[in-house]
Amino acid sequence: MRYLSILCLSLLLCISPLYAQETLLKFDRTQPVEVTADALEVDDIAHTGRFSGNVNVKQGDFRLRSDDLTIIYAKNEDQKASGQTGKIDKLIAAGNVVIQSLQEKAKSNKAIYDLQKSEILLEGDVLVTRADGAISGSRVKIETQSRKIYVLSDPKKRVQAVIKLDEVQK
Fold this sequence. Notes:
Elements (H helix, E strand, L loop, with lengths): L1 H19 L13 E3 L2 E5 L4 E12 L2 E12 L3 H6 L5 E13 L3 E11 L4 E12 L2 E11 L4 E5 L7 E4 L1 H4 L2
Antiparallel strand pairs: 1-3, 2-3, 3-4, 4-5, 5-6, 6-7, 7-8, 8-9, 8-10
């Protein structure tokens, strides 16, 4: 139970930066994070926590839905002695991923947030929509520090962008 509390606190502290980036979604980081799922498994030896089955994350107007949400964390030597968990390295949402705020919505098969690289990678039939248009591709990479977005294709699916000029010019 102790590890569950630490895992939930870590999720609260680390998921906020994932969605605070203006490049994808905006939301109120002061709101509490609520996670619901069919099951939660914490493996302290493997340094993982996994929410599975109908995962829903809610923070204010922000929503994340997926079939599975895995949290990978590290332990350093000082924390091993005290039994504390380490910082989160990655968050991986898999299966029917939908990330939504009031202004934007992103859909993909998988989303990976690498905290060490400050990158978000959306993979598999990615579609990001807003009032002023949409982008789609096989992968979307977001560099959160530089605020750059890369939309990538594969041989079977080219990058596509739809821009509603009326909305852009307002």
